[in-house]
Q: What sequence folds into this?
């Protein structure tokens, strides 16, 4: 095992320079009431090295498993420990329709030197190609979008990334256990929640094995069963093995869900033609509702559909038009009134849609953001309850492990970081003070998020690493040092 190092290459958060993992300097070897001779990571996107929406060289370099294993001296600094995509701009997992697409990472830039408002655009990347596809000599069995069933089940072919790296004759879990880990980090549940929400929370919220698709969320009972199956498989492979379970943060506070305003006005205020068309469609829509409720006066006010309001002013109050299949059916004079409404301030618009809003998308009755392009406030509240339920299961499984499992509490860490944030009042989050630098839970020069607003940059990944380290040190008598996030590069901003 390599000795832990003292030497860090100092790189400012602002820079995008290549980082070199430090050379060894002899100090005490990392130790704990655990065997670190063979550490394995298993999970989904959070451990897969996604940055700026893409799998790439830099994303792989700063993936949580790489930072943990190399910064803390558990493997050689040049060792390939994760599924690796050897491409500068990479493969964008959100923008490519299939793995043959060539859309690369997001790029953020300032349109002029004197502005504090950045824009985002796509770069040209490469089709998905894992440089080390099929290699079983890994420390990380973690893939984009990998749900708990993508990890535990063999023969499952819904995840294109696991299939592009391994065939599905064996489950990812079976491959990880065959590595005979002495210690493991397991990240299950987070990706299931995320997959459900990124599909607009339109899937089954209580799915079982026979029904669970990409957009579905396992029931609590089913999640517990599969989590216990995964932990037992890893613990039983090696009588002395121990592990860390990573719990689930409240990701509804991540920039992907709160950065884009509910209000479409700033995107189209100068587009008089789009505004006129939207107002015309709104008038027809409202007249149909008025006529219907005049014909059906017994319908209570609470059950009536909302009208559309595009006031001819610049008060910045024109909610984005969204499809909402939970609305009541309305037919007036033989015509079905579309199930659309305007977004409310406490709903969640996905950041991915922001650029399209500049074209008038989401402005008119005829071109609403679809049902899977946002989540309502009500769905958001349900998700928060599900996160709490899953986290309780994760903690319970750890508690019942006889001291062999501990929990890395990312839920509390991100709650601390986002403390003070208020969407209604426009209050910014307090952030997290690390050695005098306040790390912000947003896309910024001192932010922890990459430009996709969902996955972390190297600084943010260091926070995940340190949460794992804290769990080991506090619960397994460890002496592991933490990674200094201020020595890692942050999100890259350029001037156009």
A:
């Amino acid at each position: 095992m390599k000795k832990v190092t003292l030497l860090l290459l100092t790189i400012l958060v602002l820079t995008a320079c290549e980082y070199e993992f430090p050379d060894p300097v002899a100090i005490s070897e990392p130790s704990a009431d655990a065997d670190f001779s063979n550490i394995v990571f298993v999970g989904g996107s959070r451990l897969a090295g996604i940055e700026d929406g893409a799998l790439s060289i830099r994303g792989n370099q700063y993936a949580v498993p790489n930072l943990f294993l190399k910064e803390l001296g558990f493997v050689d600094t040049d060792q390939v420990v994760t599924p690796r995509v050897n491409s500068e701009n990479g493969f964008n997992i959100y923008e490519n329709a299939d793995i043959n697409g060539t859309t690369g990472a997001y790029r953020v830039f300032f349109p002029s030197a004197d502005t504090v408002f950045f824009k985002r655009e796509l770069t040209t990347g490469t089709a998905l190609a894992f440089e080390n596809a099929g290699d079983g000599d890994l420390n990380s069995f973690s893939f984009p979008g990998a749900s708990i069933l993508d990890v535990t089940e063999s023969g499952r072919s819904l995840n294109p990334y696991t299939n592009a790296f391994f065939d599905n004759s064996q489950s990812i879990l079976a491959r990880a256990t065959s590595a005979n880990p002495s210690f493991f980090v397991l990240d299950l549940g987070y990706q299931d929640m995320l997959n459900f929400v990124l599909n607009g929370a339109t899937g089954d919220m209580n799915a079982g094995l026979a029904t669970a698709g990409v957009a579905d969320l396992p029931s609590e009972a089913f999640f517990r069963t599969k989590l216990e199956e995964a932990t037992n498989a890893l613990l039983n492979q090696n009588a002395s093995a121990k592990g860390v379970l990573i719990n689930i943060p409240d990701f509804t506070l991540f920039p992907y869900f709160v950065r884009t305003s509910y209000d479409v006005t700033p995107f189209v205020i100068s587009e008089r033609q789009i505004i006129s068309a939207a107002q015309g469609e709104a008038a027809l829509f409202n007249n149909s509702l008025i006529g219907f409720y005049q014909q059906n006066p017994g319908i209570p006010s609470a059950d009536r559909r909302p009208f559309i309001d595009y006031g001819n002013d610049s008060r910045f109050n024109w909610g984005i038009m969204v499809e909402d299949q939970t609305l009541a059916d309305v037919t007036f004079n033989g015509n079905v009134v579309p199930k659309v409404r305007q977004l409310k301030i406490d709903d969640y618009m996905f950041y991915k849609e922001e650029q399209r809003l500049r074209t008038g998308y989401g402005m008119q009755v005829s071109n609403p953001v679809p049902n899977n392009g946002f989540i309502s406030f009500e769905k958001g509240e349900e998700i928060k309850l599900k996160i709490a339920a899953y986290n309780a299961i994760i903690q319970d499984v750890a508690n019942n492990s006889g001291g062999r499992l501990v929990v890395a509490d990312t839920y509390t860490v991100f709650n601390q970081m986002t403390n003070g944030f208020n969407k209604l009042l426009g209050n910014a989050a307090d952030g997290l003070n690390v050695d005098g630098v306040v790390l912000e839970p947003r896309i910024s020069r001192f932010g922890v998020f990459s430009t996709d607003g969902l996955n972390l940059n190297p600084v943010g990944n260091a926070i995940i690493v340190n949460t794992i380290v804290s769990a080991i040190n506090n619960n397994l008598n460890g002496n592991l040092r933490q990674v200094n996030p201020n020595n890692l590069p942050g999100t890259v901003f350029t001037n156009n």
